[in-house]
Amino acid sequence: MEAATYILFGLGCLGATDIALYHSFSHGIRSHPDARGELVVHSLRGPTYAALFLVIPNLVLQGFYFWCLLALFVFDVLISIVDFALERESRRLLGGLPSGEYVLHIIIAMLFGGLLTAVCLEAGAWRNEPTQIAYAPAAVPDVLRLVMAVMALLVLISGIQDAMAAWRLYAVPLRGDQGKK
Questions:
Q1: In 66-152, where do the E strands start and end?
Q2: In angstroms, what CA-CA distances link 56 with 35, 59, 105?
Q3: pLDDT tens-digit series, residues 24-62
């Protein structure tokens, strides 16, 4: 899945930019109680993309496992929909969602569509094969597959950090709830 690997790498770079620039530096959402729902949703994305970064460039998923891969894509779409619905309110007291982040999300969504298309074109025939998982590296440089393994680890850590921040922030009252009992 050569094209899918390159598209996924691009998605990973843009996702890392979103996390670093907008989630961490610009808004620091891991320290804002109003963002705890958004953090829960983000925590689900960590293991989802960790799996994609390891599977797409390295494995052939045939039969039932191909359908599991498609289910993972559907799960990520649901994560995105819920994330978009929560972001505006969770960032309201932080000045709202920056325009650059909206644009970045649009580009990421378009690339995600390209990724799904590439997977279906490159691996669609796997759906009719006997169910199995096989190690079959994509025709990409080994260093790219290594970088994507590191990306898998980093996005998993980021997801864990989001979950821990959300857990910690559930003990902190929301700004609008202070003084209420």
A1: 132-135
A2: 31, 6, 22
A3: 777 777 888 888 888 999 999 999 999 999 999 999 999
